[in-house]
Amino acid sequence: MPDPERQTTDRDGAGDPLAAADFQHLHLERIHGAVRVVLDRPPLNVLNIQMLRELTAAMDLLAADPAVTAVAITGQGRAFCAGVDVADHTEDRVHDMIHSFHEALLRVRAMEMPTVAVVNGAALGGGMELALACDITVARAGAKLGQPEILLGVLPPYASAVLPGMVGRSRALDLCLTGRTVLAEDAAQMGFVQRVWPQDDFPRAADEYLRSISELSRPVLRLAKRAVDAGAEAPLADALPAVERIYLDELMSLEDAREGLTAFLEKRPPVWKGR
Length: 275
What we know:
There is one protein chain. By secondary structure, the protein is an alpha/beta fold. It folds into two domains: 6-214, Alpha-Beta Complex (2-enoyl-CoA Hydratase, Chain A, domain 1); 218-265. Helices cover 44% and strands 16% of the residues. It has ten helices and eleven strands. The protein has helices at residues 49-63, 94-109, 126-133, 157-167, 169-178, 184-190, 202-214, 218-232, 236-250, 255-265, and strands at residues 6-8, 26-31, 34-39, 71-75, 79-81, 115-119, 122-124, 136-140, 144-146, 181-183, 195-197. Helix 4 packs antiparallel against helix 5 (169-178). The longest helix has 16 residues, at 94-109. It is globular, with a radius of gyration of 19 Å.
């Protein structure tokens, strides 16, 4: 039986901006007020230039949709994403590929709403880098993650830039210089996966996690993400005043912030208005 809370772009109503989305290698699903972006290029969802451009276009579409509370990225079938197509690494394509790849990852990273990588299977090479571009990564127990580019005589540019800040220089070098893969459980210990659930429970647990975020206030979630980013990108002496400004000048002007505090004092569930 279809999930009544889940709508794909094929079934959305005429007024839904996602209804006009026409992608060959991915599809979009509304679920719990969030949108799931499903990579769909069998058998392993390997990214090619066209798929990367579609991912960028999907992020632009979702960024402009005021109804989207959160975005999840996952893979169709048994893999999350096994990397970028080796055929696009040839001399005549590599500049276009790198530009398209980094444009897509930076677009994911720049989303105002929370982004969650739902790693349902192997996330290798560019697939792991796509997960790193998301705010949070949740993974199926036993899923393999890694940066095997060195084995092909190349390197992972996005991972090289962000992994040291996430796991430390030595751990980043261990992954990038050996090309080894790690299980999701080990990735969680290292710090670049945040939640791991057993295989049998993974779809339900991932949906519940997405629901737990997407049922909250959209504007407050976006401000919370901005506040954490301010803290991550500057020394405390600069970050704290920036977060204070977000709190006093933007957060406290929201109806949802007042509603949340009032509901707590009145001992009732809050009713978010999205403003």
